[in-house]
Amino acid sequence: MLVLIGVLLVIVGFAIRLNPLVVVTVAGIVTALLGGLNPVQILDAFGSGFASSRSVTIFVAVLPVVGIIEFFGLQEQAKTLIGKLAKLTAGRVLLGYLAVRQITAAVGLNSVGGHAQTVRPLVFPMAEGAALRRYGHVPEHIKERIKAHSAGADNVGVFFGEDVFVAVGSILLITTFVDTTYHLHLEPLQLALWAIPTALAAFLIHGFRLLRLDKSLDKEYRKLEATEPAVAGEAK
User: Fold this and answer.
1) Which of 144, 142, 146, 150 is nearest to 222 (CA)?
2) pLDDT in tens, the chain (236 residues)
3) Does residue 22 fall inside a structural domain?
4) Does residue 41 sit in the same domain as residue 105?
5) So where does this one cross the membrane (predicted)?
6) Residue 107 domain-assigned (yes or no)
7) How many domains does the chain have?
């Protein structure tokens, strides 16, 4: 039972908004110590885990390319392009990306999107450009909200889309665990089919949240317009 303290540490750490990497690392070390592992074994477990999942860090190889294309104005071009499309809003841009991200993940193309290679240099500037065209200016706190929703659209899309693909690691892990632990024969296709309703529900729910983002921004800008004249009057 003591090893479950690690789960409690994760919950508390996330609740008080500490750095997720630090929280998970500390929770893992505490759990390992309570489970009877010595420091050398803990270090070996961390090293083995990193070596077996090193493909997760492949985005580091993309960062120089992202930096170069940003330096030559990719973000500005994305803003300009979206600014010319009158009917696009920040929420609609992100809804479109959510659909693309989920569909590509469902057919195994997880590397098509991502925070480093797609969200930061392309998706967020497009959403920001839509907000800029609609409202004329984008304050810093609203820009941060759009950044968060851009990252969230990517997370939800890939998380619920990839399970539809039969050869994804999570599907294979589940089938292997069930087969070896419960001595059942579970086909990956069965899990993938059952993941489709979940993916559709995730798209509808998060898509609704993205469309509500536009209404929320409309309301916030109306408040800003109401307060700015008052502040200008006080300054005079």
Assistant:
1) 142
2) 666 788 888 888 888 888 887 888 888 888 888 888 888 888 887 777 666 655 555 556 666 766 676 666 666 766 676 666 667 889 999 999 999 999 998 888 887 888 878 888 889 988 988 898 888 888 999 999 999 999 999 999 998 988 888 777 677 777 777 777 777 777 778 888 888 999 999 999 999 999 999 999 999 998 888 876 544 444 34
3) yes
4) no
5) 56-74, 164-185, 191-211
6) yes
7) 2
